[in-house]
């Protein structure tokens, strides 16, 4: 990964590291995991200190930082120091003492995860995916399990523009429609893990039919990412509640709504808002 043109927002460096973790080689993952487990210590480390803690070389430390999108170890260290300073005076346990405060803690965590979620996203893949969707004769949108709501949000935005979009929820119908795709058609497949068997099977059927596959996932080495012509990797969260699938659906939905917005021109977007409003409350139409 090339160094990012903009530094991550304050408080999101750990989320950015987590987002790129699955794309790293084993020795690089060890470096990243030390940064995730001990970010406040790593902020004061030298490259040799981090290499020793991860059981690897300083060259691997530098390569890990670059593959995560940072300019090098010194930039990563300075950003960790920045985030450490921004937390000065906070009580890290305060948000977990009662129900209402726990809600605030989770919402803040999701906001931080969302801010760092685009770190692993390839701008080239995004541009190619937008071009493919814009030029598609037909778009099939598929998401199963926890990814279904995010996929549906993308489909609704596209349908409101007057585009030909199919978004079935039945697994058999997903397969049938994927097999009917062809040149000029696009499948948008959404799976946070990239391993959902129903979604992967639909992607395989679309590939066999000659359609273009756009895969939205948090894992660049997943089966879906490998199948996709345009893999769009948007990272998961780093905080303790990310494992409870709190951040992932928010990240997916926000990204897919933004993707739909970019795929529609201004005229289509205005029509989309009017159409969706009429579907929600026909009396206002």
TrEMBL record:
Q: Name one GO molecular function term.
A: DNA-binding transcription factor activity
Record flagged with keyword Lyase = no
Q: What positions does the domain SIS occupy?
A: 129-272
Q: Which UniProt keywords apply?
A: DNA-binding, Transcription, Transcription regulation
PROSITE patterns in the record: HTH_RPIR, SIS
Q: What does the entry give for GO biological process? A: carbohydrate derivative metabolic process
The record, for Pfam families, names: HTH_6, SIS
Domain spans labelled HTH rpiR-type: 11-87
Q: Which residues cross the membrane?
A: none
The answer, when asked if Cell membrane is one of the entry's keywords, is: no
Instruction: Tell me which InterPro entries the record gives.
Output: Homeodomain-like_sf, HTH_RpiR, RpiR-like, RpiR-like_SIS, SIS_dom, SIS_dom_sf, WH-like_DNA-bd_sf
| Protein name in the entry | RpiR family transcriptional regulator
